[in-house]
Write a structure and sequence with these properties.
Structural class: alpha+beta
Strand content: 15-25%
Mean pLDDT: 78
Largest sheet: 5 strands, antiparallel
Number of helices: 3
Shape: elongated
Strand order of the largest sheet: 1-7-2-4-3
Low-confidence stretches: 1-21, 142-155, 157-162
Number of strands: 11
CATH superfamily: RRM (RNA recognition motif) domain
Radius of gyration: 16 Å
CATH topology: Alpha-Beta Plaits
Number of domains: 1
Distance between the termini: 30 Å
Length: about 160
């Protein structure tokens, strides 16, 4: 099983480490994908738009999608600063990125049944040499604020931005 605590808002009964999905019905319309993207792939606007398009295209095969959330990392400062100060800035940014869920992909389906189909089909697949893990995440979670996020179009795809 994916080792998440219940306080994280993640239903950790959805996947096995061997990539096989347990026959457990999702408890929400939100699917979490892990190992799908790396923070380095999310800095460039065009790369980000391409990733969103790919996710939308693949995940829509399993049902109607209401939105996709792929948190982006904080930009690395482009000004010169002493090495120790740059280290402190990078470390502070990394902590903020971790709290924001950078590197995770959230897909909000219209129906729970679509979430179940997607989790079964996508969990354990390979993407860019990485094995994708999937889990069900509560719609209202300390990590996600779907209801207060600003819905924008990026490359013609609905995305929540923070």
């Amino acid at each position: 099983m994916i080792p998440y605590s219940s306080s994280s808002g993640v239903d950790n009964t959805a996947n096995n480490f061997d990539g096989g999905s347990a026959e457990v019905a999702p408890t929400s319309r939100v699917m979490l994908l892990l190992n799908m993207v790396t923070p380095e792939e999310l800095y460039d606007d065009q790369d980000y738009a391409d990733i969103l398009e790919d996710i939308q295209e693949e995940c829509s095969k399993y049902g109607e999608i209401e939105g996709v959330r792929v948190p982006r990392p904080i930009e690395i400062p482009k000004i010169w600063m002493p090495q120790d100060e740059m280290y402190r800035v990078k470390e502070a940014n990394r902590k903020k990125d971790d709290e924001a869920g950078v590197g995770r992909v959230y897909v909000l389906y219209k129906e729970i049944e679509s979430t179940a189909k997607a989790m079964k089909a996508i969990g354990g697949r390979q993407f860019a040499g990485r094995t994708i893990l999937v889990a069900c995440v509560a719609e209202v979670s300390h990590r996600m604020t779907w209801h207060t996020s600003k819905l924008t179009l990026i490359g013609g795809i609905q995305c929540w931005t923070f």
